[in-house]
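::Amino acid chain::
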Amino acid sequence: MGPAFAEISRRDPTIWLSGPQTSAARPMPDGRQPEPGGWNRIVLTVEDLSAQIEILQKARVTFRNPMISGPGGKQVLIEDRSGNPIELFEPA
């Protein structure tokens, strides 16, 4: 079995490829499951995810899930105004 996750970059941008064994494969609290084509997203790396979450909650941003932690760090999914997912990621 290959790695659960790969990161590819050539200058900017960096593309993240997440397999079925990564935290990106977890269902959302409302029961939505990952599906091909529907979970592609931009990942923004942040230094203090908890602080960013507080700011975004005050701004009434839509969150798909609470913050989760994994071996690579912490993450949360938010939605833009069109419902597209954006991941905020704090490396371990």
Notes: The beta strands are 5-9, 14-18, 42-45, 62-63, 68-70, 73-79, 85-91. Residues 23 and 70 are 7 Å apart (CA to CA).
